[in-house]
């Protein structure tokens, strides 16, 4: 159990807070995972009373809590621990009021001066917010800890990420900065490490001697969902590949850490990012694909083209599909291509890692039988239907020898009789416990930008050209060609 | 042939849900809920629930209620032995309103060895314009990493874009040419499709699977070493099929196609006469002629197009032989086999003729998956049908 603490949510009336943060904190309360005295202080520009904020929180929990129906007793108690301070982020007076309110609550609730600041505000506000926290002394650890949680995107390129890191580190110690990538809070993402390092049978084949290629797919059926303005500036490469997808790459490719602690795990992840071979400008057309969706049908519904979405420029060149092929230059992965793709308006939401193994060295059962079977593959499915599948060949029960590929499936949903917590629940508790293992470190973020920036630069220069794909498909034709060039093809997730 | 039997009700736990006018995300959410609901009671204090078993996505596309009920029966029986997810889509394109209705039925079967077999049926009724984009409804509901069999009941709309997109999601296309409304045209289209995409998505046919006992009887006749020469000396084949007029000749044509491709006959000419009769001439690899006759016969108890009789004549080494396989009028599950070889006395036998249920035929087709013999026979059957067009 974490020590008693106060949590300040900047942007407490925003979308992230409404859909994720407030329902997650309610669910932590429901599981009795919040320390006694814990309280949330909402801080936003809206001129609300504490009662207004509690009404807002009640509505958000009722609508978005993963556990339903809502437990009225828990909700009542949760709401009683919510407070609100109206803060204009460019006005130091508001931060002084916030400081006074925190001191008051600390005295009342015996939280020992421990405060977590959650930045659920648009990224351009981060520097101002950090500067105000520093300016009014809210980041000073005179009594208790002062931690800050920063949402992705962390910068928009290597330069801005370095600047932001510099600004943060002027005010907070690096080990008090929690850069959140909610993918890392997902049970199945954490399970990648458990699967790899708590079992002895997979690690011996987890290398270039046995692995043919690795495919990582992060796809969703959704469009930009009212975030057209933001998305048109970001695109799939910066929105997904730079963070979620590369985090999955690091967990798949990392060496076993000496322990499951923050430094050991993050050191190994950084080593992977350092080993990812940067792509030269001349290599972009053969190794990257960018696409944008056109009108089509998704989940049975007609959806507009990206350029017809609200707040998107009608001649936008922003990619909603990104695919990148690269190598991890180390002893373990020499010569194994990593294929990463991210897509909006895919046929369905799916995130998975597919480790494709090589075919057997000798065709004992002949070439014809080989056509009927696929090589071994291990699929780590992050969402939905979280689980693990192992594909292998088996004999069909009939005369003679006929082979068929079969699956051995492990599904979280039906294998453990508990609901998986939301990623945010896990990460909020970890932050209060002072465990940053599942948060990204400054150097991880910078190395990821270091890989992505040259791709972004080439794409902005039109290399390769933007391709189009119909909404409800798995991306543009170039995506298939990317793998066909190596004799591979994308698996249908 | 594997015999399928439904589970005893005591061995089955089930859950259901249905709603009219729903969205696909709502359906997906209910599928997950029901799946978890069925998995949970298995978890005792000492044991975790078994992982979900699923070895097949069976996508069944029906044009009406009757076809949908047939698909339900087949999926359910198949699931008694093979854990699967059935997506049953009933299409009503002429309806004015775009709407999606959904029925979920899930079962957990407790098999004697303790491993559960789970069956999920997601039945969707799609009306209006949505019927043109059923692939966007089907794709998100497929269980990943298991084969997908697309079973199109009725006439497959071979040139329709929605059908082709659905085919891209599939590993096998199953049709029943016995139910084609325009068997001649649709079989030609199907042969064209098989030629175009068959390497990636094999095609199979219930009507072909029903021919298996007939093919076995013909092949068994020529199996003994002393009769092998007759195989090369086959000179006449006659096939009777149930129907009025020309009816549905697909099964008969497939059987001829099977013989023609196996024995390397080349079609010379064919003509159709009155009353459904067809005469065709093939030339064998040694230059000898093979006459083929198809005719429809009235057979009340047989479905249209089903075979009623196969007769084969052959000559080799100065001897003649004749094989006649005729379905018994009194008992359709028996055939009378008559064998005449040279001057010997006619040998007559009555043998059982398997009449497997559609689910059992489907098991055979799924085991075969890629059946090159059928694909070749279909191509040859299409050549024959085209020749007397």
Provide tags for this entry.
heterodimer, A: 9-stranded mixed beta sheet, 6-stranded parallel beta sheet, globular, B: 389 residues, alpha/beta, Dihydrodipicolinate Reductase, domain 2, 8-stranded mixed beta sheet
Estimated structural class of chain B: alpha/beta
The third-level CATH topology of the largest domain in chain B is Dihydrodipicolinate Reductase, domain 2
Strand content of chain B: 25-35%
Class from secondary-structure proportions of chain A: alpha/beta
CATH class of the largest domain in chain B: Alpha Beta
> Runs of chain A with pLDDT <50, length 5+?
none
Overall residue-averaged pLDDT value of chain B: 86
Strand order of the largest sheet of chain B: 1-4-5-3-2-6-7-8
Helical coverage of chain B, percent range: 25-40%
Q: What is the 3D form of chain A?
A: globular
| Sheet with the most strands, sense and barrel status of chain A | 9 strands, mixed
**Stretches with pLDDT under 50, minimum 5 residues of chain B:** none
Protein architecture, described:
The complex is a heterodimer of chains A (493) and B (389). Chain A is built from 15 helices and 17 strands. Helix content of chain A is 38%, strand content 21%. Chain A has 493 residues and is α/β, with parallel strands linked by helices. The longest helix of chain A has 26 residues, at 228-253. In chain A, helix 9 (262-275) runs parallel beside helix 14 (442-460). The mean pLDDT of chain A is 90. Chain B has 389 residues and is of the alpha/beta class. Chain B has two domains: 9-170, no CATH class; 210-387, Dihydrodipicolinate Reductase, domain 2, CATH 3.30.360. In chain B, the strands form two sheets. In chain B, strands 1-4-5-3-2-6-7-8 form an eight-stranded mixed sheet, with helices on both faces. In chain B, strands 10-11-12-9-13-14-15-16 form an eight-stranded mixed sheet. In chain B, a hairpin with a 5-residue loop joins strand 11 (278-283) and strand 12. The longest helix of chain B is centred in the N-terminal third of the chain and has 16 residues, at 24-39. Chain B is elongated. The mean pLDDT of chain B is 86. The interface between A and B is large, with 42 and 36 residues.
